[in-house]
Specification:
The complex is a heterotrimer of chains A (264), B (335) and C (526).
Chain A: H1 2-7, H2 13-34, H3 46-60, H4 62-65, H5 82-91, H6 113-126, H7 140-143, H8 146-156, H9 158-161, E1 168-169, E2 175-176, H10 184-193, H11 208-223, H12 237-260
Antiparallel strand pairs in A: 1-2
Chain B: H1 22-25, H2 27-57, E1 63-66, E2 70-73, H3 74-100, E3 107-110, H4 118-135, H5 141-154, H6 156-161, E4 184-186, E5 203-208, H7 218-224, E6 226-230, H8 240-244, E7 250-254, E8 266-268, E9 273-275, E10 282-284, E11 290-293, E12 302-303, E13 305-307, E14 313-315
Antiparallel strand pairs in B: 1-2, 4-5, 5-6, 6-7, 7-12, 8-9, 9-10, 10-11, 13-14
Chain C: H1 3-19, H2 21-29, E1 32-33, H3 41-60, E2 69-71, E3 83-85, H4 86-96, H5 101-128, H6 137-159, H7 164-179, H8 184-192, H9 201-231, E4 245-250, H10 251-276, H11 282-285, H12 301-312, E5 317-320, E6 323-326, H13 327-355, H14 371-391, H15 393-400, H16 404-443, E7 445-452, E8 458-463, H17 467-474, H18 493-506, H19 515-521
Antiparallel strand pairs in C: 1-4, 2-3, 5-6, 7-8
Helix pairs in contact in C: 3-5, 3-10, 4-5, 5-6, 5-10, 6-9, 6-13, 7-8, 12-13, 12-14, 14-16
Classes of the chains: A mainly alpha (264), B alpha+beta (335), C mainly alpha (526).
Chain lengths: 264, 335, 526
C-alpha cells in the first residue's frame, strides 16, 4: 500500500494515468461499437427480417439513400436493386461508404451476415430485383467450363480487371478492383447488379452457366501456380522492365565493379 | 588575369608504385586463392549435374511454394538454378583467378597515329587518279550515263517484285459486314439478342450475323466488333438523327478505337464514359461517343439499330463512316 | 617435350603455314586493355547478344511462325479447346510440354531486356565521358544504329507468340503505318498481306527477327568491335595516362580471363532471372483477337517511352479536302522518335561544331568537366523518363492511388517544363563539383581532426592530396587554355553568331587549380 501511495508522487504517475484512461476509453468504445446492435434478435421469420432490415436501413443508410430508399443527389435509388446488390455492397464492406469519394472502397463490413441478410430482405421487399446467392449454390466446379470462362472473361471483363483479374485503372481515380480471392457469390452478384462503375451483365447476355464458367476460371486463376518463377504481379511488362533494370543490370554492374577492383 | 605562359600546371606523376597482392608475396595466400578458384569451378560442375538430374528425374508437374516467389514449377526452377550455377561459377572462378593470381602489373602500350603518311596519301591519290582515268569514264560520257541508267533501273526490279506482298486496300476500310437488317449476335455465344435482354446499365459485346457459309475471321472481328449499351433514354444528349439510331435507350458503337484500333469496351456505368485502356482516350456515350479526354480525335462511329419483326436487335443500315483508326483517304468531315 | 606440347606445336605449325596467324596473334595477344567497371557495359550488350542467339536458336526448333488457326489440346487446361494461331499454340507447347522450354523462353526474354538496358547504360557512359569524339564518331553511329535496331528486334520478338498483349502492340504499329499520308493504307496492306491482322505478318516478322536483323547485328557488332580493337579503347584520366598511351592489362591472360569469365557471369545472371522470375506468361494473356483488350496493356520498357508519348498526344487531326492526317499519331509515333534518334546520331558532329574541337581524344572527360554536355544528357534522360512514366500511367494510378488523368496532364506539361529545369540544375551541380575539385587540390582533404594553435584558434587539419590525385583533378583541357577555339571567320553571319553563342556557353568552366595557384596560397593555410 505504501508503495502505491508513494508512487502517486512520482512525476511519471500523471502521464501513466492519462495513458491508462485513454486506453480504457478506447477499448470500451471499440468493444461497444463492435457489439451487435440491440435490436438484432436472431429470427427466421421473413417479416421480422424485413422490419429488422428496415430499422437498420433507417439508421445506417437512409441519410444518403433516402427514407424510402428512393435515392437522391448523393446516392442512387435502391428500389429494384434486389437482395443481390445489398449482399454484395454490404457484405464486402463497400456500403456504408466511408467517404464521399469517387469509389466505394472494399473494407471490413460494418454489418454482420445476419444484419446484411436483414437489409437485403428489406430492400428486396421494396421491388423485385436480382436475388442474392450463396457460395454453395454456385455449382461452378460441376457446371462451369474453365476454358469458356477464360474466353468470356477476356471478352467482357479483362478490359477493366486485367487479363489475370488483377484489377485496372478507370478514369479520374476510379478503379476496377482485383478479383483474386473474392468469394464466388460476390463475383456473381457483381456481374448481375453492376455495382457503381461496373456495367450489368444480365442473364440474357451472359447466361448463368456462362457466369459459372467465368467464376470457375477466376478460381483457377487465383490458385494458378506460377510456371516460371515469381509472378511479378501479373500486370505485364512494367514490373518486368523494372526488375530487369534493378536486379538484372544492377547485379551485373555490381559484378563489374568487383571485377575491376584491385585485389588485396 | 594570369598570363598563361607563366602559369605552372600540375605535372603527371607517372604510374603509381605497384602494390603487391597477398597472393604475390605470401604462398599461403596464393594457395588459398587457388582453392577459392577451384571451389568455384567445382560449384559450376555441381550446377551442371543439377541441371541434368532435374531434366531427367524431376517430374514436370510438380510445384513448390517458396517465400517471395510464391508457388513455382519445380523442374523449371531446378533447371534454371542448375544452369545459373553451371555458368555463373565458371565466370566467378575465372575472374577470381585473374584478380588474385594472374599478373596485375599495369602495362603501358603506345597509341599510334591513325593518319596515314603523307607519301601514302599522295600515292593513293595519284593511283586513284591514274586508274580512274584509265577507266575512261571521264571522257566516255555515253558509258557513264548508260551505266548510271542501268544501275538505277536494276534496283527497281526487286522493289516491283514486292508488289504482291499484299492486295490494294480499295474500299476495304469503308465497309463492314453490317447492313440493313443484319442481326446482332452475342460474342462469343453467337446468339441473337432482344431489347429486353438488356437492362439499363447493361452492356453486350456483339458481332454481325454473317451470311450463311461465311466464316468469322479475326479480320472481320477487327472491323465488325460493336458494343451495345443501354441507358435511360432521358440520359441521351443527341440530335434527332442520332436519337433515331438508338432503340429504347440502347445505343451501339463500333468497338474499334478511332485512335489506334484497340477494343474500346471499358464502360463506366455511372459516368456513361467509355475508356480505351491503350492510350486512355475517353468517350461520352450520351453524346454519341464524343471524345472528352485523351489522344483520340474522332468519336466512335455509331451503328443505327432497331428491332426486326421477331423482336431481335438488328442494324438499320451500315456504318455511315469508316470505323477504326484514321487513314489518308478517310473523309472525316462528318466524324 | 610432353605429348600435349608436341600436339599443340604441330597444330600451331599447321595453321600458321596456311594463314600466317602467328604474326597477328603475337601482336594481339599482348594488346593492352584499360580496366574500369564502366567499360564492362558494352560487354554486357555483347554477351547478352550471344545468349540471345543461342537461346533463340533453341526456340526456333519448336516455334511455328504461322497464323494458321488450330485448336489447343496441350497440357494447360484453362485454354483447352480454344482456337488460336499455330504460333501461340507452339509457344504454349514450348512453355508447358518441352522440358526447359519455358526456361529458354524466359532466359531469351530477360536477355533481351538486359541487352537493351545495357545498351542504354553503355550509351550513357560513352556520352557522359565524351568517348564519341574523334576518332570514334563512326562507332557512335554504329551504336545508335544498334540501339534503334535493337528496339525493333525486341518488338518483333515479343510479338511472335501472337498473344493478346503483343497482338495489341501490332495493332498499334499497324495504325501508325496506316496513318502515314498518301501511302499509309497501301503500306499497311502490303506489310500485313491484306487487312489486319491477316495471316502473313507473323511469318514475315519471323524472318526479320531470326535472320535479317541478327545478320545486321552481327555485321554491325563486328565492325563496332573491330574499331574498338583497332583504335584502342579510351581510358579515364589519371597518373601515367596520356592521350598517347593505353594503360591496362594484356589480353592474355588477364583480359581473356576477365572478359571470358564475364560472359559466363552474364549468362548466369540471365539464367537466374529466367529461373526465378516469370516473364511474358503468354498463357495468361490469351490468344490475340482484335475484339479483346486487357487493362494495363504496355509494350516492353524500351518502347514504353513511345507509348507514353502517344498517350499524352493532344487529339490533333486535320480533316480537309476529303483526307485525314493524324498528327496525334504521326507526331509522337514518327516525328519525335525521328528527331530524337537523328539528334543522337548527329551529336558528335554537333558538339564538335560548337566547340570547334578537331583534336583526337583518347582520355575520357569526367562528366563534371563538360557541364553543358552533362546537363544536356540529364535533360534528355529526364524527357525519356517522363515519357516512360506516362507509358505506365494506368499501372502507376492503380498502385499509387492516383488518377490517369492527373498523370497524363502532369506529363503533358512536365515534358516541356521539367527537362530545362533538369538542365539548369545539372549544369550548376557540375560547376559546383568543379569548384569542389579546385578547393580540394588547393586546400587538401578535410580530416576532421582539430588542432589548437598557440594563438588559441581552432583549425581543422587538411591533408594535402597526393600528386596522383592532384594530377587527376587538374589534367583536363579547358577551353580557355587553348588557342582561340573558334576562328573569327567561323563566327560571322546568323549561323556563325549562333555557333559563337553556343561556344561561349559551352566554355563555362571553373578554372582548374594550377601549381602556381597552390604556390600563391603559400603559408597561412593548412
Amino acid at each position: 500500500m505504501k508503495k502505491i501511495s508513494s508512487f502517486r508522487r512520482h512525476r511519471i504517475a500523471g502521464p501513466i494515468l492519462v495513458v491508462a484512461a485513454l486506453f480504457t476509453i478506447g477499448t470500451a468504445f471499440g468493444v461497444a461499437s463492435a457489439l451487435p446492435s440491440a435490436q438484432s434478435t436472431i429470427t427466421t421469420g421473413t417479416s421480422t427480417l424485413v422490419s429488422q432490415g428496415k430499422a437498420i436501413f433507417l439508421r445506417g443508410c437512409s441519410s444518403c439513400h433516402g427514407l424510402h430508399a428512393e435515392g437522391g443527389s448523393i446516392a442512387p435509388s435502391l428500389i429494384g436493386v434486389g437482395s443481390a446488390a445489398v449482399d454484395f455492397q454490404v457484405g464486402t464492406g463497400r456500403m456504408p461508404m466511408a467517404d464521399m469519394s469517387q469509389q466505394a472502397m472494399q473494407k471490413k463490413p460494418l454489418y454482420n451476415p445476419q444484419e446484411t441478410a436483414a437489409l437485403a430482405a428489406y430492400v428486396s421487399s421494396l421491388a423485385p430485383g436480382p436475388s442474392a446467392v450463396t457460395n454453395e449454390s454456385l455449382t461452378y466446379e460441376r457446371d462451369g467450363n474453365s476454358a469458356l470462362g477464360g474466353q468470356l472473361f477476356r471478352t467482357n471483363c479483362a478490359m477493366c480487371h486485367n487479363f489475370a483479374g488483377q484489377g485496372g485503372a478507370l478514369t479520374n481515380g476510379k478503379y476496377a478492383p482485383s478479383l483474386m480471392g473474392v468469394d464466388p457469390k460476390y463475383i456473381y452478384e457483381a456481374m448481375v447488379t453492376g455495382p457503381q462503375s461496373m456495367p450489368k451483365f444480365t442473364d440474357a447476355t451472359i447466361t448463368p452457366q456462362e457466369k459459372l464458367s467465368i467464376i470457375k476460371w477466376l478460381q483457377a486463376a487465383n490458385h494458378e501456380q506460377n510456371q516460371g518463377g515469381a509472378s511479378l504481379g501479373r500486370v505485364g511488362p512494367v514490373t518486368e522492365g523494372l526488375l530487369g533494370w534493378v536486379l538484372g543490370l544492377g547485379l551485373l554492374i555490381g559484378v563489374s565493379v568487383w571485377l575491376a577492383m584491385k585485389a588485396k | 588575369m594570369s598570363d598563361h605562359s607563366q602559369v605552372e600546371r600540375f605535372q603527371d606523376p607517372g604510374l603509381p608504385e605497384h602494390v603487391h597482392r597477398n597472393a604475390d608475396v605470401d604462398p599461403i595466400a596464393a594457395k588459398r586463392a587457388e582453392r577459392q578458384v577451384a571451389i568455384l569451378f567445382l560449384l559450376s560442375a555441381v550446377g551442371t549435374v543439377l541441371t541434368i538430374v532435374s531434366y531427367v528425374f524431376v517430374k514436370s508437374d510438380k510445384y513448390i511454394y517458396l517465400p517471395v516467389m510464391g508457388s513455382t514449377n519445380v523442374q523449371q526452377l531446378l533447371l534454371g538454378i542448375g544452369l545459373t550455377a553451371a555458368t555463373l561459377f565458371i565466370g566467378l572462378g575465372a575472374i577470381q583467378w585473374a584478380k588474385k593470381l594472374m599478373p596485375d602489373q599495369e602495362v603501358i602500350a603506345e597509341r599510334h597515329e591513325f593518319r596515314s603518311e603523307d607519301v601514302d596519301r599522295d600515292d593513293l591519290v595519284a593511283t586513284f587518279k591514274e586508274r580512274g582515268e584509265a577507266t575512261g569514264l571521264g571522257r566516255r560520257s555515253l558509258i557513264k550515263r548508260t551505266l548510271g541508267l542501268a544501275l538505277g533501273l536494276v534496283g527497281l526490279s526487286p522493289l516491283i517484285l514486292l508488289r504482291d506482298t499484299g492486295p490494294l486496300p480499295g474500299k476495304y476500310f469503308d465497309t463492314t459486314d453490317w447492313a440493313a437488317g443484319t442481326r446482332l449476335l452475342l460474342d462469343p455465344a453467337g446468339t441473337p439478342i432482344k431489347a429486353s435482354d438488356l437492362e439499363v446499365g447493361a452492356v453486350a459485346q456483339v458481332l454481325p450475323e454473317l451470311p450463311a457459309g461465311t466464316e468469322r475471321t479475326l479480320e472481320n472481328t477487327g472491323k465488325d466488333a460493336v458494343l451495345l449499351i443501354r441507358l435511360h433514354p432521358e440520359d441521351f444528349n443527341l440530335d434527332a438523327q442520332r436519337l433515331s439510331w438508338t432503340y429504347q435507350g440502347i445505343i451501339a458503337f463500333s468497338k474499334i478505337c478511332t485512335h489506334m484500333g484497340c477494343a474500346v469496351a471499358l464502360y463506366e456505368q455511372q459516368t456513361h464514359h467509355l475508356l480505351c485502356p491503350c492510350h486512355q482516350s475517353t468517350f461520352d456515350v450520351t453524346r454519341a461517343a464524343k471524345v472528352i479526354f485523351g489522344p483520340a480525335a474522332r468519336p466512335l462511329p455509331q451503328l443505327a439499330i432497331t428491332v426486326n419483326s421477331d423482336g431481335y436487335l438488328v442494324a438499320q443500315q451500315p456504318f455511315t463512316l469508316p470505323i477504326g483508326p484514321s487513314f489518308w483517304e478517310r473523309n472525316s468531315s462528318n466524324g | 617435350m610432353k605429348t600435349s606440347q608436341k600436339v599443340a606445336g604441330a597444330t600451331a605449325n599447321y595453321v600458321d603455314e596456311r594463314t600466317g596467324a602467328a604474326k597477328w596473334l603475337k601482336k594481339n595477344l599482348t594488346k593492352v586493355f584499360p580496366d574500369h567497371w564502366s567499360f564492362m557495359l558494352g560487354e554486357i550488350c555483347l554477351y547478352s547478344f550471344v545468349i540471345l542467339l543461342m537461346t533463340g536458336t533453341f526456340l526456333t526448333f519448336w516455334f511455328d511462325p504461322s497464323q494458321r488457326e488450330v485448336i489447343y489440346h496441350g497440357s494447360y487446361l484453362p485454354l483447352s479447346g480454344v482456337h488460336m494461331s499455330a504460333a501461340y499454340d507452339s509457344t504454349l507447347h514450348l512453355s508447358f510440354d518441352v522440358r526447359g522450354g519455358l526456361l529458354m523462353r524466359q532466359i531469351h526474354h530477360w536477355a533481351a531486356l538486359i541487352f537493351m538496358s545495357a545498351i542504354v547504360a553503355h550509351l550513357f557512359r560513352v556520352f557522359f565521358t565524351g568517348a564519341f569524339r574523334k576518332p570514334r564518331e563512326f562507332n557512335w553511329l554504329i551504336g545508335i544504329g544498334l540501339l534503334t535496331f535493337g528496339i525493333v528486334e525486341g518488338f518483333l520478338g515479343y510479338s511472335l507468340p501472337d498473344d493478346l498483349l503483343s497482338g495489341t502492340g501490332i495493332r498499334i504499329a499497324e495504325a501508325i503505318l496506316q496513318a502515314i499520308p498518301v501511302v499509309g493504307s497501301y503500306l499497311a496492306f502490303f506489310a500485313f498481306g491484306g487487312p489486319f491482322p491477316g495471316t502473313a505478318f507473323i511469318p514475315r516478322i519471323f524472318i526479320v527477327h531470326v535472320l535479317l536483323l541478327p545478320g545486321l547485328f552481327l555485321a554491325l557488332i563486328t565492325i563496332h568491335l573491330m574499331l574498338v580493337w583497332y583504335q584502342k579503347h579510351t581510358q579515364y584520366p589519371g597518373p601515367g595516362r596520356t592521350e598517347k598511351n593505353v594503360v591496362g592489362y594484356p589480353l592474355m591472360p588477364v583480359y581473356m580471363a576477365k572478359a571470358g569469365g564475364f560472359f559466363f557471369i552474364v549468362f548466369g545472371i540471365t539464367a537466374f532471372l529466367g529461373a526465378v522470375a516469370s516473364i511474358n506468361p503468354i498463357w495468361l494473356y490469351g490468344p490475340y483477337t482484335p475484339g479483346q483488350i486487357s487493362a494495363g496493356s504496355q509494350p516492353d520498357w524500351y518502347m514504353g517511352w513511345l507509348d507514353g508519348l502517344v498517350r499524352m498526344a493532344p487529339p490533333l487531326e486535320t480533316h480537309a479536302f476529303g483526307h485525314t492526317i493524324s498528327w496525334n499519331i504521326l507526331i509522337p509515333g514518327l516525328f519525335i522518335p525521328g528527331i530524337i534518334f537523328t539528334g543522337m546520331a548527329l551529336y558528335p558532329f554537333i558538339e564538335s561544331w560548337i566547340t570547334g574541337d578537331k583534336r583526337e581524344h583518347h582520355l575520357l572527360d569526367r562528366p563534371r568537366n563538360a557541364p553543358n554536355r552533362t546537363a544536356l544528357g540529364v535533360m534528355s534522360i529526364t524527357f525519356m523518363l517522363i515519357s516512360l512514366a506516362n507509358g505506365g500511367n494506368d499501372i502507376i494510378a492503380t498502385h499509387f492511388h492516383l488518377t490517369i488523368n492527373a498523370i497524363m496532364w502532369f506529363t503533358r506539361i512536365g515534358l516541356f517544363t521539367v527537362p530545362p529545369i533538369a538542365f539548369v540544375i545539372t549544369k550548376r551541380v557540375c560547376l559546383s563539383l568543379q569548384r569542389a575539385d579546385r578547393d580540394l587540390v588547393l586546400h587538401g582533404k578535410e580530416t576532421g581532426r582539430l588542432v589548437m594553435l598557440p594563438t588559441g584558434e581552432m583549425v581543422e587539419v587538411h591533408e594535402p592530396l597526393s600528386d596522383a590525385k592532384k594530377w587527376t583533378l587538374t589534367q583536363h583541357q579547358q577551353p580557355d587554355a587553348l588557342p582561340a577555339p573558334l576562328p573569327a571567320s567561323a563566327t560571322v553571319g546568323l549561323k556563325g553568331k549562333f555557333r559563337a553563342r553556343l561556344n561561349r556557353a559551352n566554355a563555362t568552366q571553373i578554372p582548374a587549380a594550377t601549381l602556381t595557384d597552390l604556390k600563391e596560397l603559400g603559408d597561412g593555410h593548412h
